[in-house]
Write a structure and sequence with these properties.
74% helix, Arc Repressor Mutant, subunit A, 2 domains, Rna Polymerase Sigma Factor, Chain: A, mainly alpha
């Protein structure tokens, strides 16, 4: 789960914090767990909800705080440029550009190795809707990455 958070946020410390918060919330809400559902899916659902809330807060912060991108101290270093050229970095970047719904299903399917049915249960959508999101995400990634 921490890896899902990291890939969505690109911040290891915040990813760890969200993973811990997910487990704490799951523990505190353990009475509401339905044993007919897989425990992992239930915990992932809690984590995805926390991630969405975090992303909403970050969006609000960006909208209200002045942009730091213009600050010369935030310019890309040569090391960062080299890392960006690597295939993994390109893929990470492309995944981060996907709409939230597509990014979630891509990370859950390929990073967490969850089935479409499991992802559907976590997100509250049908397995077919998951497959459609995956199809659109793969097409968008091909467009973003070119033939690389």
């Amino acid at each position: 789960m921490e890896a899902l958070f990291f890939r969505s946020l690109r911040d290891a410390e915040v990813a760890r914090d969200l993973a811990q918060e997910t487990l704490l919330k799951a523990w505190s809400k353990r009475e509401s767990y339905d044993p007919t559902r897989p425990l992992r899916h239930w915990v992932f659902q809690i984590g995805v909800n926390l991630l969405r809330n975090h992303l909403r807060r970050k969006t609000l912060e960006r909208a209200t705080l002045p942009s730091l991108a213009a600050d010369p101290a935030n310019r890309e270093t040569p090391t960062k440029r080299l890392a960006k050229r690597e295939k993994e970095s390109e893929l990470e970047e492309a995944i981060s550009l996907l709409p939230e719904g597509q990014r979630e299903v891509v990370l859950m399917r390929y990073q967490e190795e969850l089935s479409c049915k499991a992802i559907g249960e976590i997100l509250g959508i049908t397995p077919n809707a998951v497959s459609i999101r995956l199809h659109h995400a793969r097409r968008a990634l091909r467009d973003l990455l070119g033939d690389a």
